[in-house]
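Field notebook, page 313. I keep forgetting to write these up properly, so this time I am using the form the group agreed on. The chain and the ligand, 3'-deoxy-guanosine-5'-triphosphate, are recorded exactly as supplied. Prediction of the bound pose follows.
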Amino acid sequence: MTDDNNEQTFETIAIASDQVMAKLKTQLSDKPPALLCFGLDSEKAILDLHSGVMTLGRSLKNDLVIQAHTISRSHFKLTVSEDLETVVVEDLESRNGTLLNDKRIESPVKLSKDDIITAGNLVFKYLPKASPERQLYEQLQFKANTDSLTHCFNKQYLFDVLERELSKQKRGLSSLCIILFDIDHFKEINDLYGHDAGDHVLKSLATLIWHKEIREIDLFSRYGGEEFVILLFRTNLETAFTVAERIRTAVKGHTFEYGDHKIQLSISVGIADTDGSISKPKQLFRQADEALYLSKKRGRNRSSTYQMVKNKE
Ligand code: GH3
Ligand code: MG
Ligand code: MG
């Protein structure tokens, strides 16, 4: 499968935890300039700035679309030099103006470290190329969005991304599938080997999937206890089913080791797609959950789609 998800400059990319950590450790000199944003969705808190022009505003024509009533259709523009050393901000005749350090911008101004841009109720702090402060924010952001045991994205982050993706879909921009899976008879693992062994299995299972089974752009999250969700962007139901079966088979074929114990397990999977008609994350989860329930009912260690649920009705 290929990564063709490059439609927007600020597309959020979900990456495996160790890849995130490796990324955080890359040389600071590799870091582009960025805007640290307050008042936006948490996942967009750090916006990388690339060379060229970037506009912000309410209209869909902008590179960064902010649909808030305090933001004008075209609000401000940033021009970033080829070497990423210089960033110039310019107001686009916005109704409420663009402020730089509390003063209204009248003409293009070159940004300096720690400058604060205000547009409506949004506040942006400028972090120049290779700013050490940036690493700190990335780590904080990573912590806020992930589950500490498995390093998968957490449920809140999953909901935020899904909400955004579904609103894109309303505009005909996106399609996605959800895979929800639950470990079969997990309680027995805790009962037989202890809670720590159960934790170890959860962690190892997440690592197994991160490393082998999903694309970098897919979003892998811990939905709760021993339930996980994978969002597959721009993927049809058929492909999602193939991915689900690959994951299920990989888990079934793996031996989890804890001390002297060799533990084998299976998962049951439910799959649903947005099908052009789903606009709320909860609807999609309900469908995936019904499909998962069907897998449990059919004897566990299998994958079912919501289509199958409907066909049975
Ligand atoms: P089923 O096949 O029907 O899913 O059976 P199950 O035993 O997996 O389902 P059940 O919901 O009865 O049990 C889930 C268990 O997962 C119970 C709970 O103690 C355990 N669990 C949930 N979160 C964690 C965790 O973070 N660590 C450990 N070790 N266990 C957890
Ligand atoms: Mg469960
Ligand atoms: Mg279970």
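OBSERVATIONS:
- The mean pLDDT is 86.
- The pocket of magnesium ion (ligand 2) is lined by residues 182, 225-227 (CB under 6 Å).
FOLLOW-UP: compare against the apo run.
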